[in-house]
Design goal:
The structure holds three protein chains of three kinds. Chain A is of the alpha/beta class. In chain A, 39% of the residues lie in helices and 24% in strands. Chain B is mostly helical. Chain B has one domain: ABC transporter involved in vitamin B12 uptake, BtuC (Orthogonal Bundle), CATH 1.10.3470. Chain B has 14 helices and two strands, in the order H-H-H-H-H-E-H-H-H-H-E-H-H-H-H-H. Chain C is mostly helical. Chain C has a single domain, classed as ABC transporter involved in vitamin B12 uptake, BtuC. Chain C is globular and about 60 Å long. Classes of the chains: A alpha/beta, B mainly alpha, C mainly alpha. At the A-B interface, helix 2, helix 3 and helix 5 of A face helix 7 and helix 8 of B.
């Protein structure tokens, strides 16, 4: 199949009459990294949650790899091929790092625990967490927890990875490591990624394409360079953050 | 050989030693000691059954007496009325308990009744059933159900009629089996799913786990295991009263050992059962010396508080660390 | 069984239900503010009933006169319990909190058992045999007294939360403990007051209930369960809900008692609970979590 990996059409969500997301449309081409940016309250996380199935959209359509996944619940959407991270990290605190990742991997290979362990360790090595595999997840520092979030999502073998602010709270050096890791996943493993990000240098370094949301609506999209020079974006987004 | 292997060997040696000692115990133990051991093993068994649901999957049931009672009455009533062998009765009890568990589970999980509310829902079902049995004449209603006693001197294992020693070995076998079963469950996919759900249900859901199904499996396994404990109680005691078999006190007693021993751990329910019974017996002796009724229970309450205050994770995680059985970092 | 008979049963159920409601208010207040489920609730109730019994038999104090004393004593007990014990366990997992309060319950029950023995006690007032006639209705005098008493205490509680500074501060704590701390409220103290107030409600309810029933030490777990049923019916944390739940349970007990069998009345209460948990888990007047 050759269409886009993810296609979002006319997506909308109202909470008790409040329009959080309105008529949002964009596509994530196969093998690309797309960033979703916008000021606080722009509806980024809501859009994410609609795609990931945390709650159903009020209207619109979400298609993954040609299959309609609109309104499916979180678990089914994950099984359809979307792995997500949470902005507020959710490690399984009492389990070890390795076990955390195994949980995601166990859905494959007929639930074979040893294969899942192997898969988990491969992913942990990729994310440079290999030496912490046997630690309880609750002992990890924030940057490591962010990586664990990515590792767990990767273990589900997603076609599309949704990353919700995985750079937030990281120091520049850690942020650059994460950028390198994600670039590697994208280039070497052909993973398609959609990310929400506030850290602009990460957005610039990573994305092939940027979608800008404001007040729940898409106001611009294009390459990072195009978007950053777009007058509307400068006005309402960069004007706020970098003014 | 790696450190992990050495460690599991030490654990295996410890367990085998314990099992051997328990298997040999009737040779040395008198009637009283044997009855205490039976109490300990029964509590450990029931604690392990409860642990599957709460310790592994994180679903707080405060009404496990329901499954004890259903298992006891299914096996007991079939035997009393038709002479049905306990093995068949056990099967019936497991089916009935599994059905009851799935009803409570379906209602609770589908309607998103969680935490304290779920616990209270389980109590409600247990109490509801208790009053129902209090009025059900076929099982003797509130005046109780009595199992026919055999007058043969020989142990009849297939009908579970016999000496305390026989019952001792039955419950020892059940406890050992429950331990191995729990261990196997934890090492399988479902075990990992349960623990993930226990730690963070939403995150587990986001990893594609069918949370509802996993929780239902936990309830059904836990309920069926618990019902076998009930069957044992029925045949060991030879009498059943809804008032006591379904009581909330039984539900509480059943989980107490596991919480004290270490919830979610494999060895916690066993250690907790030993610790609580030892505490209870010690306090009985001391209480008898002082000669005031009730002192025992009060001291029991105080000891519980002390354990909760200082070892909220239970005794076993702490002891395991002290014995360096967890590969504790030196 | 004619209409008048039913009217009498229903009104008796309603009146008893108000006392139940007051008892459940104590549980509801504590849960609503601290998210602590007080499993020692029934035991505190029994202590209050025995205290009332003692005051009546030893000092000749009428239950209504004893009420402020008993409620006050329970307030102090609750305040201290929260300060020295429960406060250390706020925020731990539910089952640990549950066991903690269970230990408290075990201790209380056995102290009561040691002091009073296992026998049932009751008090006989002159009013116990009198009744009011209201048209065709015949209302037991003590039942009316108990219900009116319960209504007054509930009104006082409502006024406390509505009009006093402390009450307002406690409501702030319930809404947002972190915020309350930020603006400089002494959250620990307010929690202790809350536990005290909740306990005082239980004390008052115990006092009034002794007018209607006998007391014995093993009633405690029944009252704990009854309290839970009521607050969940009405909605944990909702004051009006607790009263409504109490009245519903009082009615259901009275009706199932005469229509089916008195021993089945708890089954109906539990049936009611299961139904509400499934249809409206937050309770009839509870807010969505």
């Amino acid at each position: 199949m050759s269409g886009p990996m993810l296609s979002v059409e006319n997506l909308g969500k109202s909470f008790r009459g409040l329009r959080a997301v309105n008529a949002v449309e964009f596509q994530v081409p196969r093998g690309d990294i797309v960033a979703l940016i916008g000021p606080n309250g722009a509806g980024k996380t809501t859009t994410f949650n609609l795609i990931a199935g945390a709650f159903p959209p009020s209207d619109g359509r979400v298609t993954l790899d040609g299959a309609d996944i609109t309104g499916l619940d979180q678990a089914r959407i994950c099984r359809a091929g979307i792995g997500r991270t949470f902005q507020i990290v959710k490690p399984f605190a009492g389990l070890t790092v390795e076990e955390n990742v195994m949980v995601g991997a166990l859905r494959h290979d007929g639930g074979d625990v040893e294969k899942a362990r192997k898969a988990a360790n491969d992913i942990l090595d990729l994310l440079e967490l290999g030496d912490k595999a046997l630690q309880p997840a609750q002992t990890l520092t924030l940057p490591d927890r962010k990586r664990l979030e990515v590792a767990k999502a990767l273990a589900t073998r997603p076609k599309l990875l949704l990353l919700d602010e995985v750079m937030a709270g990281l120091r520049p050096v850690e942020c650059d490591r994460m950028v390198a890791i994600l670039t590697g996943l994208n280039k070497e493993h052909g993973l398609t990624i959609l990310l929400i990000e506030h850290v602009m240098r990460a957005v610039m370094a990573l994305s092939d394409h940027v979608v800008v949301l404001h007040h729940g609506e898409k106001i611009a999209e294009g390459t990072p360079a195009e978007v950053t020079s777009h007058p509307k974006v400068l006005e309402c987004y960069l004007g706020e953050d970098h003014g | 050989m790696t450190a992990a292997n050495l460690l599991s060997d030490r654990r295996a040696i410890l367990l085998l030693g314990l099992l051997a000692a328990l298997a040999a115990a009737p040779l040395a133990a008198g009637d009283y000691a044997l009855s205490i051991l039976i109490t300990v093993l029964l509590q450990a068994y029931l604690g392990m059954a409860w642990n599957v649901m709460m310790g592994f999957a994180g679903q707080f049931s405060l009404g496990h007496a329901l499954y004890v009672g259903l298992g006891a009455y299914a096996g007991g009533a079939l035997f009393a009325h038709f002479g049905t062998p306990p093995l068949v009765g056990a099967l019936a009890g497991m089916v009935v308990s599994a059905v009851a568990g799935s009803i409570i589970g379906t209602l609770g999980f589908r309607f998103k009744v969680m935490g304290v509310y779920f616990a209270l829902l389980t109590i409600a079902f247990a109490e509801f059933t208790r009053v129902l049995f209090d009025h059900w004449n076929w099982v003797g209603a509130s005046s109780g159900l009595f199992l026919p006693v055999s007058h043969s001197v020989n142990d009849d294992f297939w009908n579970l009629r016999g000496s305390a020693t026989m019952f001792y070995y039955v419950i020892l076998g059940m406890a050992a089996a429950a331990f191995l079963f729990s261990r196997a469950l934890l090492g399988r996919r479902i075990g990992y799913y349960w623990q993930a759900i226990r730690e963070d249900q939403d995150a587990a859901d986001a990893l594609g786990i069918d949370v509802f199904r996993a929780k239902m499996v936990a309830v059904i396994i836990s309920a069926s295991m618990t019902s076998l404990g009930g069957l044992f109680i029925a045949f060991y005691n030879n009498n059943l009263y809804p008032e006591s078999i379904f009581s909330m006190h039984r539900s509480i007693e059943l989980m107490l050992g596991t919480i004290i021993g270490g919830i979610g751990t494999l060895f916690g329910p066993i250690l907790g059962a030993v610790a609580l019974t030892a505490l209870g017996e010690a306090l009985t002796v001391i209480g008898a010396h002082i000669g005031i009724d009730g002192v025992k229970q009060i001291a029991y309450g105080v000891c519980l508080m002390v354990i909760l205050a200082f070892r909220p994770g239970g005794l076993w995680p702490w002891l395991r660390h002290r014995l360096r059985l967890d590969g504790g970092r030196r | 069984m004619d209409a008048t008979f039913f009217m009498n049963v229903i009104s008796a159920g309603l009146l008893t239900g108000l006392v139940y409601g007051l008892m459940a208010l104590g549980l509801s207040v504590i849960f609503g503010v601290m998210r602590v489920v007080n499993f020692a609730h029934g035991d505190m109730m029994v202590v209050a009933m025995y205290a009332t019994y003692l005051l009546y038999t030893k000092l000749g104090l009428q239950p209504l006169a004893a009420l402020p004393l008993v409620a006050g004593a329970l307030f102090v007990f609750g305040y201290v319990l929260q300060r020295v014990l429960i406060n250390r366990f706020l925020g731990v997992t539910e089952h640990i909190q549950f066991l903690l309060l269970l230990s408290v319950a075990i201790i209380i029950t056995n102290v009561v058992l040691m002091v009073f023995g296992p026998d049932a006690r009751n008090i006989q007032l002159d009013a116990s045999f009198e009744s009011y006639s209201l048209g065709p209705l015949v209302l037991d005098k003590v039942r009316v007294i108990a219900a009116v008493g319960a209504g007054c205490v509930a009104a006082l509680l409502w006024a406390f939360f509505r009009y006093t500074t402390t009450g307002t501060a406690i409501r702030a704590c319930a809404d947002n403990p972190v915020g309350a701390r930020v603006v400089g409220l002494d959250v620990e103290k307010l929690y202790a007051v809350t536990f005290g107030v909740g306990s005082a409600c239980v004390g008052a309810a115990g006092c009034l209930l002794l007018l209607l029933v006998d007391v014995h030490p093993h009633l405690s777990s029944d009252y704990t369960l009854l309290g839970f049923i009521i607050v969940i019916l009405g909605g944990l944390g909702s004051l009006g809900g607790a009263l409504l739940g109490g009245v519903l349970v009082g009615l259901s007990e009275a009706l199932s008692g005469v229509l089916i069998a008195p021993s089945l009345k708890t089954m109906f209460s539990f049936g009611l609970l299961i139904l509400v948990l499934l249809l409206r888990p937050q309770g009839i007047l509870g807010k969505k979590p």
